[in-house]
Amino acid sequence: MSTLFDLSFYVTVPFWALMILAPTWRHTRTIISSPWIVAPSVVIWAIVALPVLDTMWSLVTSPSLAAITTATADPAVLTALWAQILAWDLFLGRWVYLDSRDRDIHPLLMGPLLVGTILLSPIVFPVYLALRTVVRRAPDAATAQANRVTV
């Protein structure tokens, strides 16, 4: 189970690396635009969650701190929750990256925010939402298309 726990993080790293270290590389946007980048994490989630699906189901249908505390003592449940958190953070980071590129927010500003999204997305996501209200608005579709045309 430890291997799958670790693997659930490592399968997200290439996508985070692209968004943080190569945000303007011509292939980064194409790769990150696919919502399927979360699929490796979801596959790991499925591998570990399916055998404990009854426990997972009871956690979401009758949540309580005591039940979650008890359930997370099971490495499979904890690994499934970890894979789910990582998949969600990656999906959220993907949206932030794509939105910031559409708004032309400088990558040097976005790099730390994306790292923050990996570490503390519930804090950093509202910070990004506040930032996007004060930066240049996203261009309309016609302007965006005109900016993409190269001569």
UniProtKB/TrEMBL annotation:
Transmembrane portions of the chain: 7-25, 31-53, 65-88, 108-131
One Pfam family hit: ABA4-like
InterPro entries referenced in this protein's UniProt entry, alphabetically: ABA4-like (IPR025461)
Keyword list, A-Z: Membrane, Transmembrane, Transmembrane helix
Protein name from the UniProt record: ABA4-like family protein
Lineage: Bacteria, Bacillati, Actinomycetota, Actinomycetes, Mycobacteriales
